[in-house]
Amino acid sequence: MASRIDFVEYVCEQMSGAGIITYKKMFGEYGVYCDGKIIGQKKA
Prior knowledge:
The chain is an alpha+beta fold and 44 residues long. It is built from one helix and three strands. The protein has one helix at residues 5-14, and strands at residues 21-26, 29-34, 37-41. Strands 1-2-3 form a three-stranded antiparallel sheet, covered by helices on one side.
């Protein structure tokens, strides 16, 4: 099941105190980055 963008945005908002949080769609899912380093990606 693919991640929903509203959930990805919510998670990123919750982590905003940790640094600059961004996300990028990759391979049909989203990778989450903190200060330019990947910290999470959903596995199938």
